[in-house]
């Protein structure tokens, strides 16, 4: 199947590691022109090299902070100047700290809001005029399986991921007539640094080993394993491709059947 992504400019936020890097890699496999974005130039250079080794395609990168409006404007500007009008945007940001309601101050709530909701709003605001002028576009907002089933000890994530869901659903109604498709994706237990960190916290709290946490976790997953980043990334690429012409406003979980709600 030709996904129609060759030479298409794609901006992937939070893409120096984890799910963002995996998405960038899969887009490059399809011949897209990819812009990476992260706070760490060292990690961005490493990601750029890794992707080039696998695909022969060398993505560009911009160093910046996703919670800083000026940095978001700059990465969008850089993408357009280097590659042309942005065809697809993948919104992705690291997860907020784990904890329960009593753990967090107003300042912590504000930082989580800026990281996991406001950053998405700002980036979409910057790319929409470009997509509207081009008469097409694809937007994917990464969240979590918590948009279907809340996760223990992750109240900040549970709260602001739902905001992204409302934003996406509303924008799908507003943008449908302009050939701009927007969807939410949520990972379950995908093998990333973020999941390893959360598993470590759980292990320390329960006073058990990391292996015991893993063995306990996979019993709740019908496929009996954690997912791989590339499995998640392939769905991202499909939803952004020319093969997707009628899916918008939806929430797609890549979780191996973990989530039991409808």
Write the layout of secondary structure elements.
Elements: E1 9-12, H1 18-29, E2 33-38, H2 41-55, E3 60-63, H3 69-83, E4 88-91, H4 106-134, E5 137-142, H5 155-175, E6 180-187, H6 193-206, H7 210-218, H8 229-240, E7 251-254
Parallel strand pairs: 1-2, 1-4, 2-3, 4-5, 5-6, 6-7
Helix pairs in contact: 1-2, 1-8, 3-4, 4-5, 6-7
Task: Tell me what you see in this structure.
It contains 8 helices and 7 strands, in the order βαβαβαβαβαβαααβ. With 262 residues, the protein is an alpha/beta fold. It has a 7-stranded parallel β-sheet with strand order 3-2-1-4-5-6-7, sandwiched between helices. α4 (106-134) runs parallel beside α5 (155-175) and α6 packs across α7 (210-218). The longest helix is centred in the middle third of the chain and has 29 residues, at 106-134. The mean pLDDT is 96.
The amount of beta strand, in percent, is: 5-15%
Give start-end ranges of low-pLDDT stretches.
none
Number of strands: 7
Shape: globular
What's the short version?
By secondary structure, the protein is α/β, with parallel strands linked by helices. The chain is 48% helix and 14% strand.
């Amino acid at each position: 199947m030709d996904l129609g992504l060759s030479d298409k400019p794609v901006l992937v936020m939070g893409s120096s590691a984890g799910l963002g890097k995996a998405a960038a890699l899969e887009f490059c496999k399809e011949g897209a022109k990819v812009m990476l974005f992260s706070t760490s130039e060292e990690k961005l250079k490493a990601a750029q090299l890794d992707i080039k080794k696998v695909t022969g395609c060398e993505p560009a990168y911009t160093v910046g902070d996703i919670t800083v409006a000026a940095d978001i404007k700059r990465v969008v500007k850089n993408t357009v100047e280097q590659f042309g009008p942005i065809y697809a945007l993948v919104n992705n940001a690291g997860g907020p700290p784990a904890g329960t309601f009593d753990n967090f101050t107003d300042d912590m709530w504000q930082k989580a809001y800026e990281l996991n909701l406001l950053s998405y709003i700002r980036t979409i605001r910057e790319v929409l005029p470009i997509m509207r002028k081009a008469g097409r576009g694809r937007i994917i907002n990464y969240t979590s399986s918590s948009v279907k089933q809340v996760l223990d000890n992750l109240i900040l994530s549970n709260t602001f991921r739902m905001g992204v869901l409302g934003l996406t659903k509303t924008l799908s109604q507003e943008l449908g007539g302009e050939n701009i498709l927007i969807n939410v994706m949520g990972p379950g237990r995908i093998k990333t640094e973020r999941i390893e960190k959360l598993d470590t916290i759980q292990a320390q709290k329960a006073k058990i080993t990391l292996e015991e946490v893993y063995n306990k976790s996979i019993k709740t997953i019908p496929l009996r394993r954690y997912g791989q980043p590339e499995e998640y990334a392939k769905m991202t690429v499909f939803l952004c491709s020319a093969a997707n012409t009628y899916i918008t406003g939806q929430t797609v979980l890549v979780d191996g059947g973990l989530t039991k709600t409808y």
